[in-house]
Amino acid sequence: MRPGRRPSANLGGMDGERKAGGVTQAAQALQALADSLRDCTRCGLCGGRTQVVFGVGSPVAELMFVGEGPGFHEDTQGEPFVGQAGKLLTELLGGIGLGRRDVYIANVVKCRPPENRDPAPDEIEACSPHLMDQMAIIRPRVVCTLGRFATKLLADTELSMTAIHGKAKQRTLAGVDVVVFPVFHPAAALYAPANRQVLVQDFAKLRRLLELGAEALTPAGLADAIAASEVSPHEGAKPGGAGQVRPSGDAEGKPRPVAARTEQLPLW
Ligand code: URA
């Protein structure tokens, strides 16, 4: 994980280096960036938008979500993931003990593509530097990509979502060392309910990944994290369920994750 950044089980919390004035500074930097984009005309999407949908959440979030682009509701309200897919994202977050304000949520493109079509390559190219600017300010530890557009851009892969969802990849993005963790786009679960359970399981892995911090970056460590999160659907990720912490603590007395064995190859 990032040098000098201690792994933290305090999901959505901030580490020491960001505490002293860091939150205000990051919030101001994000606001300045948002202001600079209000009248953006760098791509054709500007013609059809109601407003630029910049992003929402903690300016120092350890976990950042990146979706595809605003839809009708997001364009109207000016906030990412507020429609049906957004409701599911909020539910999935709640399932791992997080709220929207604990994380940061943004999109690959910040203006609504007409008729909710896929964003075009030139639109992604024009808009992605703004996403990188957001990342450089927020400095997340984990970037969870929602669906193929964000995954292709941030994990730099042509592999299918089916092949790589729920697995981690180390990358340096905008000068920040992050773990990219792709999951299905929540909209995919609205039309194919089987995907919902896959998302629930991947979010349980995401929680373990956040809890393990640096330890998760070794293949064995992440394998442990994933094995520990392989819980039965009715157990979910709730405290005391399978995949939870064992009583013994680390040097600071914090509980350590259960280290179960697995044959999975979680890094790719
Ligand atoms: N889908 C996305 O990819 N982003 C949103 O903000 C809403 C729906």
Could you explain the architecture of this structure?
Strand 5 (169-173) and strand 6 (176-183) form a beta hairpin. Helix content is 39%, strand content 14%. Helix 2 (22-37) packs antiparallel against helix 5 (121-138) and helix 9 packs across helix 10 (219-229). It has helices spanning 16-19, 22-37, 72-77, 84-95, 121-138, 148-155, 161-164, 186-191, 194-212, 219-229, and strands spanning 56-57, 63-67, 104-107, 142-146, 169-173, 176-183, 245-249, 255-257. The strands form two sheets. The protein has a six-stranded mixed sheet with strand order 1-3-2-4-6-5. A two-stranded antiparallel ribbon has the order 7-8. The two termini are 16 Å apart. The longest helix has 19 residues, at 194-212. With 268 residues, it is α/β, with parallel strands linked by helices. The chain has ten helices and eight strands. It has a single domain (26-244), classed as Uracil-DNA Glycosylase, subunit E (3-Layer(aba) Sandwich). The protein binds uracil (URA). Residues 67-71, 74, 80-81, 83, 85-86, 107 line the site of uracil.
